[in-house]
């Protein structure tokens, strides 16, 4: 039954990925005063790992930590307190996850109603899709559907979750759905939102987006990390959601971390593209006018998300195998450590290349040699003192169609310990070769996908979830920064400072695309940033990493820009050979970009190499 009389619904986000800390669920259940507990476990890479696990053992294929760690520790309290749970821990085997949870409940003597959402697995459709015209094409690269697909799952929306809760489920386990749907489904159930309440759906989706990455909403990965207290006891996020789509972000009392407008703004920009056209299965969101304000100690209000009708397609994420890869590391210590590491790596690759030719094998299809500790990610912007480091890590990564070629490389790396540079150490065990899994995203008409919900084995009627969406309204023109020319002019007394003095930033990934959200520390600095952080200049500064175009979008509601960098992650995910395959470093590197400001703008020393930015107050 929908409880539309509720003024607010408190939802705690206990997990941001499969592997997140085990403290989230107990912390929220014990001290969060929550109505719902949600878990997000899935990423594209996770789906391929789960698919491989199910091939080996049919009863697996789900995020086992959800059952054996999280729910084992809180199931009794969750049921006793009337807290309901929604999780996408089902992966590629949601029914298997539910069976394991039922076994746990029986072991603990607890009765609980469990619903399972299926229908996201589109592998059975692939033979027919290969024969259709026009052929399936990958969204970013345009390549045709690969021959050997490992997994293929549609990103479902919130309607099946709503249906499960409407039917009385206490715990809902899904397969692949968009991360924010676990929260939106709850709010549609609680407030009785309809499929065409687009502004409310956008607000609920934003609430889910804020908490889907766990502590990133409460100080994790914050630009001003030194201002975030008590990392060891950081609080997991809670959203207090209201019927109009607005919400408060907070955390359990007495926990560490920081809930502040700039922290929430960083998370809002995390892993999105055009903020005016953020595509989800239930709604197309417009976040450009969102306002984020302090609403008390460790409380931030978020409002003014807008929405419009969704498209008639689901995004499908498939994965496929493309040969093998290995990655190995050595530590070099002493004078000129970085130079020694580079020469060591080049010598190893030269030797192994000759051995491969002697054995009639082709050379490596891709190679990446990185010197960690010498600012290799900064490319031409690396500081001279970093190159003079006395401790560096050589990281060698390579791909090949034959596993034996990579095993040869792994074996030869160890020889550097006695053959090459003094101070070579830290080889550890021999690196193994693993399948190289690539992502492949495409669109599939919603009419071809049929979500299903089972409550304790009984199929539910999903009229709303199966019905086609209303015709989509045309999207407005993208709010690119070039549409708002800058009025800022460089003064005669300009000095140079790193961007971090003027902005907060966070970066994320979607396949081979990286986005970098940049938020002005003060609203009046937005004009200055608009004039200097042009797409061309950002592309030039990151040219050693970004191989495709860079687009800039503006979010005037929080005085921010979002830069979307294509072909930026060397393939992204497991396909990338970089140490940073997920673009986590991109914002940190961009924050080192020199910008010109009037002398005295930041009120402190303006040396480019200073360690920390000025502390500033004010809302994004």
What is the compact description of this entry?
This protein is 26% helix and 25% strand.
Describe the overall structure.
The chain is an alpha+beta fold. It has three domains: 8-120 and 155-310, no CATH class; 323-438, Alpha-Beta Plaits, CATH 3.30.70; 481-598, 2-Layer Sandwich (Gyrase A, domain 2), CATH 3.30.1360. Helix content is 26%, strand content 25%. The strands form five sheets. Strands 11-12-8-7-1-2-3-6-4-19-20 form an eleven-stranded mixed beta sheet, with helices on both faces. Strands 5, 14, 15, 16, 17 and 18 form a six-stranded antiparallel beta sheet that branches. Strands 22-23-25-24 form a four-stranded antiparallel beta sheet, sandwiched between helices. Helix 1 (24-31) runs parallel beside helix 3 and helix 7 packs across helix 8. It is globular.
Descriptive keywords:
single chain, 620 residues, alpha+beta, Alpha-Beta Plaits, Gyrase A, domain 2, eleven-stranded mixed beta sheet, six-stranded antiparallel beta sheet, 25% strand, globular, Acyclic terpene utilization AtuA family protein, AtuA-like_ferredoxin_dom, AtuA_N
